[in-house]
Design a protein that fits this description.
alpha/beta; Aspartate Aminotransferase, domain 2; Aspartate Aminotransferase, domain 1; seven-stranded mixed sheet; globular; binds pyridoxal-5'-phosphate
Length: about 500
């Protein structure tokens, strides 16, 4: 066996590799700099493998004979996209790790029309003067918040409701607290000092806003009297936070929204509610109860609500602040607002998404379409995929796959209604020669990657979150994943 020093000597230099017949032609296509980087990366990897003792002379020879392909793969990886489509077969509709709400085709179309050219983003076409970027969506929010509040006395709410858009809901909470409570105290229940994953913690955001957290009550019980006792001359606002990602049961108490509104009025303090998801859509129509909507809160008398654009609303990432005109106006005037503002792409996507709500074209918005999809339709698609899998198994190579349909539940997810589920039909896969985790890993390695749940030794696929036009590819990738020889 050759010493390592000798093995290193077998490696070409970057220059030699670049000039070699194998690799030289890539420079013409991709540019010399990119090809040199790829060569460097490939050679560095070989050196590491030699150092680790993975390669003897024999194996190194094999590796060196494949240099052309390996450099090409490295180039493709380096010059290709890292962000790519995946098939979400988890049944979690708002999956934060998978990009939360997919954006509506109409929204993408509107982005294409307006973002690749100049637009009237901040330009008033009537006067020829500078305008405000908010106007494009504010009119729609006004309409939506009034449409759903409906008749009579409620119209007066909508008249005075303004909405502004910032980067995300975390930014919305930060802006609201900083504007209304910097240097003063904010009263909040200990049972609502939540962490929403990805480092959003109410106490931390509060700290950054310059407001002082005044915790009241206990983890499981907070009464309205606890709030009242905490109010003093330094109090600037009362905060309510939706428990988006957990539930409390047992010996618990939470002061009602009605009580909090009354208390805030009595002391002339604003009541701010971080709704998290903030549905603009009547969730009870899909069987989800007890998830507060934006309109419910405003109608109940909350002064300002904050919510995400890419959760139940089904739009782009954004933080929405809707509420009393005078308070929202103060936030707009805060220099933080300038730092947290969003791009024209987001306004375009939001405008299109909100218009779909106004026209009641709910199926235009993927999140809403997925929530509304009846179990029977999901079962029908699952049955069609089962048939495809089985017929593929009848070919020359008998598949090792076993598939069956199961009743199950899809999740809203994404820090929205914690216990809200929708009935669904799952495809449960087992593979004779693979563990469930191995099969799931193979599905993740397919193109496009398929993300599934693993439960009780089975791989579970929920088509609620799979776009129907992906069904074909999904069937193909399932069969392929199960058929690949086991790599041991
Ligand atoms: C999701 C959530 C947030 C964070 O919203 P982002 O849009 O991700 O910044 C804050 N508060 C609550 C209650 C949430 O559910």
């Amino acid at each position: 066996m050759k010493a390592r020093a000798e093995l290193y000597r077998e490696l070409p230099s970057v220059d030699e590799l670049l000039r070699s017949a194998d690799v030289a032609e890539f420079s013409g296509q991709e540019g010399q700099a990119a090809v040199a980087d790829a060569c460097r990366a490939v050679l560095a990897r070989l050196r590491t493998q030699i150092a680790a003792g993975y390669l003897d002379a024999e194996k190194l020879k094999v590796e060196l004979s494949k240099l052309r392909e390996v450099v090409q793969e490295e180039l493709e990886r380096a010059l290709g996209y890292s962000l790519r489509t995946v098939i979400n077969a988890t049944g979690v509709i708002l999956h934060t790790n998978l990009g939360r709400a997919p954006i509506a085709a109409a929204a993408l179309q509107h982005i294409r029309e307006t973002a690749g050219t100049y637009s009237n983003l901040e330009y008033d076409l009537d006067s020829g003067e500078r305008g405000k970027r908010d106007v494009h969506v504010e009119r729609l929010f006004r309409k939506l918040l009034s449409l759903s509040t409906g008749e009579g006395a409620r119209a007066s709410i909508s008249e005075n409701v303004s909405t502004i858009v910032v980067n995300n809901n975390a930014a919305a909470v930060l802006l609201a607290l900083n504007t209304l409570a910097e240097g003063g105290e904010v009263v909040v229940s200990r049972g609502e000092l939540v962490e929403i994953g990805g480092s959003f913690r109410i106490p931390d955001v509060m700290g950054k806003s310059g407001a002082i957290l005044r915790e009241v009550g206990t983890t499981n019980r907070t009464r309205i009297a606890d709030f009242e006792n905490a109010i003093n001359e330094r109090t600037r606002l009362l905060l309510r936070v939706h428990r988006s990602n957990f539930e409390m049961s047992g010996f618990t108490e939470q002061s009602s929204l009605r009580e909090m509104v009354a208390l805030a009025r009595k002391h002339n303090l604003p009541l701010v509610e971080d709704l998290g998801s903030g549905a603009l859509f009547d969730l009870s129509s899909v069987g989800i109860q007890n998830e507060p909507g934006v309109v419910d809160s405003l109608r109940a008398g909350v002064d300002v609500v904050t919510y995400s654009g890419d959760k139940l609303l089904g739009g782009p990432q954004a933080g929405l602040i809707s509420g009393r005109e005078d308070l929202v106006k103060k936030m707009r005037g805060n220099s933080l607002f300038r730092a947290l503002r969003v791009d024209k792409l987001i306004y375009a996507a939001l405008e299109a998404t909100l218009l779909a709500y106004i026209k009641r074209d709910y199926d235009v918005v993927p999140t809403l379409r997925m929530m509304r999809a009846p179990k029977a339709e999901i079962a029908r698609r699952a049955g069609a995929i089962m048939t495809k899998i089985k017929s593929a198994g009848g070919g020359a190579r008998p598949t090792q796959l076993h598939a069956e349909l199961l009743d199950g539940e899809s999740l809203l997810g994404g820090g929205s209604a914690p216990s809200s589920t929708l009935p669904t039909t799952l495809i449960a896969l087992t593979c004779y020669s693979l563990t469930a985790n191995e099969l799931a890993t193979r599905l993740r390695a397919s193109d496009p990657p398929v993300i599934a749940r693993v439960d009780d030794g089975r791989v579970l696929l929920d088509l609620r979150t799979v776009f129907p036009e992906q069904d074909e590819v999904l069937s193909r990738e399932i069969v392929r994943a199960a058929a690949v020889q086991k790599i041991s």
